[in-house]
């Protein structure tokens, strides 16, 4: 019987941020996923952390699924030649959704694990949605925050505070892992995806 390849949904910023370690970790994550034969499910963007993960994944022989809502597709046209991007990346499989909410559902449904790299409000929205779904028992997929340079420590502190103040059970904290390096992330994914 053939083994179905696993896929990892990566949420991250459409910007690189100020700390160069974040952008480096994004590219390293893309290479690591491809080296392990894991597919990439991502937001189909060509810029920032998102673009770095996808470009490194593709350059390393990985296959990706990009999911983008129509309003962003019409503005950004990922995978389509343009004056500012004459040689666009081959996304592999591009799915255009009608809404942002549908985008998140499609990304999640096509992945076996979720990894969050540094990002902004959109990445936080995506993280909290899958964390909430886990908390109410809608899934048991692994959720990992790549905590490069301690980026996610304030968020992890907030989650502990939520539990300490009685707004969530302590089990909430067990739904999230925060490896500090891509090597640590790889080790955990190898365990979680087998």
TrEMBL record:
InterPro entries linked to this entry: LOG (IPR005269), LOG_fam (IPR031100)
GO CC, one annotated term: cytosol
GO biological process, any: cytokinin biosynthetic process
Matching Pfam families: Lysine_decarbox
E.C. number(s) listed in UniProt: 3.2.2.n1
Domain of life of the organism encoding this protein: Bacteria
SUPFAM superfamilies from the UniProt entry: MCP/YpsA-like
Keywords: Cytokinin biosynthesis, Hydrolase
Catalysed conversion reaction: AMP + H2O = D-ribose 5-phosphate + adenine
A molecular function GO annotation: AMP nucleosidase activity
Top-level EC class: hydrolase
Family: Belongs to the LOG family.
Protein name: Cytokinin riboside 5'-monophosphate phosphoribohydrolase
């Amino acid at each position: 019987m053939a083994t179905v390849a696993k896929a990892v949904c990566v949420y991250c910023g459409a910007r690189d941020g100020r700390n160069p370690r974040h952008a480096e970790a994004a590219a390293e994550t893309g290479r690591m996923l491809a080296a392990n034969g894991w597919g990439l499910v991502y937001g189909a963007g060509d810029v920032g952390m998102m673009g770095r993960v996808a470009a490194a994944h593709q350059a390393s022989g990985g296959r990706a699924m990009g999911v983008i809502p129509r309003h962003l597709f019409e503005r950004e046209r990922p995978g389509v030649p343009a004056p500012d991007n004459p040689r666009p990346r081959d996304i592999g499989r591009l799915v255009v959704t009608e809404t942002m909410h549908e985008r998140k559902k499609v990304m999640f449904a096509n992945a076996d694990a979720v990894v969050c790299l540094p990002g902004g409000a959109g990445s936080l929205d995506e993280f909290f949605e899958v964390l909430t779904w886990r908390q109410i028992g809608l899934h048991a997929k692994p959720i990992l925050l790549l905590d490069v340079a301690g980026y996610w420590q304030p968020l992890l502190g907030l989650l502990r505070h939520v539990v300490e103040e009685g707004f969530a059970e302590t089990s909430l904290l067990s739904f999230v892992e925060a490896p500090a390096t891509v090597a640590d992330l790889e080790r955990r994914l190898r365990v979680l995806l087998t």
